Amino acid sequence: xxxxxxxxxxxxxxxxxxxxxxxxxxxxxxxxxxxxxxxxxxxxxxxxxxxxxxxxxxxxxxxxxxxxxxxxxxxxxxxxxxxxxxxxxxxxxxxxxxxxxxxxxxxxxxxxxxxxxxxxxxxxxxxxxxxxxxxxxxxxxxxxxxxxxxxxxxxxxxxxxxxxxxxxxxxxxxxxxxxxxxxxxxxxxxxxxxxxxxxxxxxxxxxxxxxxxxxxxxxxxxxxxxxxxxxxxxxxxxxxxxxxxxxxxxxxxxxxxxxxxxxxxxxxxxxxxxxxxxxxxxxxxxxxxxxxxxxxxxxxxxxxxxxxxxxxxxxxxxxxxxxxxxxxxxxxxxxxxxxxxxxxxxxxxxxxxxxxxxxxxxxxxxxxxxxxxxxxxxxxxxxxxxxxxxxxxxxxxxxxxxxxxxxxxxxxxxxxxxxxxxxxxxxx
Amino acid sequence: xxxxxxxxxxxxxxxxxxxxxxxxxxxxxxxxxxxxxxxxxxxxxxxxxxxxxxxxxxxxxxxxxxxxxxxxxxxxxxxxxxxxxxxxxxxxxxxxxxxxxxxxxxxxxxxxxxxxxxxxxxxxxxxxxxxxxxxxxxxxxxxxxxxxxxxxxxxxxxxxxxxxxxxxxxxxxxxxxxxxxxxxxxxxxxxxxxxxxxxxxxxxxxxxxxxxxxxxxxxxxxxxxxxxxxxxxxxxxxxxxxxxxxxxxxxxxxxxxxxxxxxxxxxxxxxxxxxxxxxxxxxxxxxxxxxxxxxxxxxxxxxxxxxxxxxxxxxxxxxxxxxxxxxxxxxxxxxxxxxxxxxxxxxxxxxxxxxxxxxxxxxxxxxxxxxxxxxxxxxxxxxxxxxxxxxxxxxxxxxxxxxxxxxxxxxxxxxxxxxxxxxxxxxx
Amino acid sequence: xxxxxxxxxxxxxxxxxxxxxxxxxxxxxxxxxxxxxxxxxxxxxxxxxxxxxxxxxxxxxxxxxxxxxxxxxxxxxxxxxxxxxxxxxxxxxxxxxxxxxxxxxxxxxxxxxxxxxxxxxxxxxxxxxxxxxxxxxxxxxxxxxxxxxxxxxxxxxxxxxxxxxxxxxxxxxxxxxxxxxxxxxxxxxxxxxxxxxxxxxxxxxxxxxxxxxxxxxxxxxxxxxxxxxxxxxxxxxxxxxxxxxxxxxxxxxxxxxxxxxxxxxxxxxxxxxxxxxxxxxxxxxxxxxxxxxxxxxxxxxxxxxxxxxxxxxxxxxxxxxxxxxxxxxxxxxxxxxxxxxxxxxxxxxxxxxxxxxxxxxxxxxxxxxxxxxxxxxxxxxxxxxxxxxxxxxxxxxxxxxxxxxxxxxxxxxxxxxxxxxxxxxxxx
Lengths: 428, 428, 428
Description:
The first copy, chain A, is α+β, with helices and mostly antiparallel strands and 428 residues long. Chain A has helices spanning 4-11, 18-23, 169-176, 182-185, 187-192, 202-207, 286-293, 321-325, 336-346, 363-382, 409-416, and strands spanning 27-32, 44-48, 51-57, 63-67, 81-82, 87-88, 95-96, 102-104, 122-123, 125-128, 131-135, 158-165, 212-217, 221-229, 234-243, 247-250, 258-267, 270-278, 399-404. In chain A, strands 12, 13, 14, 15, 16, 17, 18 and 19 form an eight-stranded antiparallel β-sheet that branches. A four-stranded antiparallel β-sheet of chain A has the order 2-3-4-9, with no helix packed on it. The first copy, chain A, has a four-stranded antiparallel β-sheet with strand order 5-6-7-8, with no helix packed on it. Chains in contact: A-B, A-C, B-C. Chains A, B, C: Residues 27-134 form the Rieske domain.
């Protein structure tokens, strides 16, 4: 349970807020690379951390992320024309380059230097691993590029998607680091979905409904371990790495590609839920890739022409009460991604954490909130660089393994979770 | 005319408001019985008096009305699965019985008593007369069940419907206790609608357009009498009983089934307008029942799959200007229920009573407001049980009759209006 | 750039605001004459300057503009029936004449004078030139009728349209007095649109992209002159007359009909953008009229049954990125009216002028704001009648002409712009 002021603190990420400044310490995903496919393609409106921005590629293919609105009289540059090294406002022809610098005010003589004095706010935008990343903080503190494995493997080994979600980012992320809900909300899916079923370890998720959480601090965040009883005096462990502020990996299932999420605030009431799949040692197969496109695994299908999930609040997530009644699904909703979205959005735009009652299986959530708030305060009060900024913190890997009941989880994960790019899966 | 603070006082019914506490002194209709038809049927989201609740039937058919949101992390239990004596949250399997008591937290060992300490707020929900009633007040003050005649006769003798209305409950109720508007807004209908036309008394409604209101206090509310001139030195009297906080009966017309309304706040900007028809001495005929289903009389037709009237704000109530021009309807809107909804909603979400100009025919409204405010204050300041809580107050009946011009209305209604269940209609 | 409090001052026009009082000093367009075509036609809801009003014609064809809501209990008189010299509320039959005077309260005896004491707020509504005009200010200060030429010529010589716009009136008007954007936003249109193309002067708009603004005060507002280089040591001048508070004329192009706009606040977030075309000396041809109906020139096509532009915010103004890429249009939007609406609306409901960076070509805008604020203050503080109230101020005409480079613009416009009704075009 949080007090009202704590809940406000940890959920608000607009300019000037402590959590907003925390988010502005990191490279965060801004767009799918497919949204800006080529030089001079149409620009895209992007709202991130409550700021309205415009992303575009210039005629040389360079990426820009600048204020959405022209510095002149405030019209949206989304109507702008990308041309010869910049984007030109269609109102009076003011032109900006990818850094937001105004490079032409046609009505003013070039020699008076008017345009040089005009610059829109802008952020770097770089492509890595099929994602366009931005850093919205103080340029003097800009960290090296992210080194998450999903974004470091060749594109042939990965599949990345995003979906629009109508709620605050934190309750979405809290769902993602909560391995306990899998046995309930996704129970049918771990047996039926071709992208997660068939793994030898799956059976423990439903045979032991009293998982025990053990959470260890990692340099960049947490290792959230969940153990369930297995045969031969062993535990079956699933370990979710969480890297601040919002990156996670779902523990692997057999040799399936591994996957995970990150959640980026659009504003305080909306977020992007990103989902990645990759295999560290091989290309995805055509079948796997097609299944992902078709909304299997953690991915979804869309309202055509948008990144809005096809099952959404406006259609009651196409709830199927008959499937629920016959116990084919717990929630009556089809698809892991739709299920997560439905329940997370049902909490309201911002979950009221003053009313919650946390249990032992929420230890990962409790510790993640604690680390977020502590890091935001340390940044605000002493300028301390938060965990997860250093790319070394990104090189962690989700894992499933067995341990003897008397073996130490903490020791195991400190050895196991950091990984080299392309190392074998740690999986059962 | 009310002052701003009076208008706020009498229209706001959320938790902690004086009028909200008044409403919480009564059994009020929460759902149609048809909305929860059988054991383990899908649950229904219900917002009442600005509280978001969930209604469901468990596997034994028992009715529950509990907080909509799981006590754990706040997801909506509307996605829950009803199973074996309760509803189970699909997120982590927490299960609640109809009293809101948590009876299972699967991740916790049963012996640690965790689930026993978790209880959602809940209210009793009972079926009577085709309606599911709830009492949202202090359990120590819970009154006996309501004894309104429409809900006490066999179901074969009654027909009940509800419709969603986009305005505060009070302006809707004020329309309902206002017999004067019948001669204008519903003028065509009293001559043409098969469920109200043909009564000998109807002619006086349109022949005397200066009705005189006489209002008597009843134990539970008011008897609102309206007299119009009739032949032979007589008055034709129509008497609307109003029982606090919001129950009325439309004066009868010949041998037609009798009908009336009650209005239940959803929140301060929306309400449910309920409509009932019944005959105290006989079953409704198949034809009568079909006419009601088809939106005749005071009932309406719906947007399919909802309780939203088919004529509504979004389609300008399907106004028919040609029918209005040719004087077939005063308002251009077809149907008594649609007419009432259109005009009441047109006042805005909450009618601004600081601007009104009341006339003699508004005496019933003036006295009803007065009783409501007085009772809410007496409850707040001295804990006085308000009128209308005692079921004896419910046993009143709408009536139409003749009196000689020198006969006393007050004496007549005190004798006439209280009634025995199944007594003959008092009608002209 | 304006300070926050200046931006609020100049954009807010509700009752009691200084700019609202300024607007209430003038006759302003309220409806198209076609909206109230004949006696006893359906009434029309009209929101102007944040006031909700009802316009109607009585059975004699007289025009009324009164409060939308019945003085009795507040229902919308839009549901009223126009009959015998007034409009009758369908709720209880209260009837009002075009002055807002209540002339019948059927439930009250005529002799008690009840209805005489009831009067709705009302404003005069008069038809002139295809437009219904109102004056919403102090009756004691009501000025003579407007004498704008577009509304003074025979209807056969004019074509008038309006469109709904989702933004504050001021940013729309600022677009209209800004001749500089024509060469960019409307570049393709001045060469292709049959209602503006072909004029000898058009070439200067695109050959000289550094127009110089010279602005002269006129008795009623401004003469906003824009000069561009032409041959033979001459300037090509385009002069936009602006008459307070919101009337403009687009400088003429050859012998095409001349056109212009006025923008009327609905509330602070919405306005009506009016567009007129007329020729001072001849009837419009059938072809010209048809082209205007089809959305050419400054007119638009509509969502059927409304005055909402067919290209609008909900459909991203049907942006055509391929046409933009191939440079057929700067903005990707087709049609001058749609282009203006798109960009003006993209600034948000109220443009944030604290962030703007004005250039030399914004001199007309700067001076217009200055005159508006100065006049609103003089009215508020000293009761000074603002410029543009005197109909003599309306008799100005847009113009295009050549001057030798050393000839005085100010002298020329003082001679040229005032005009007699039906005088020849001043055009190149």
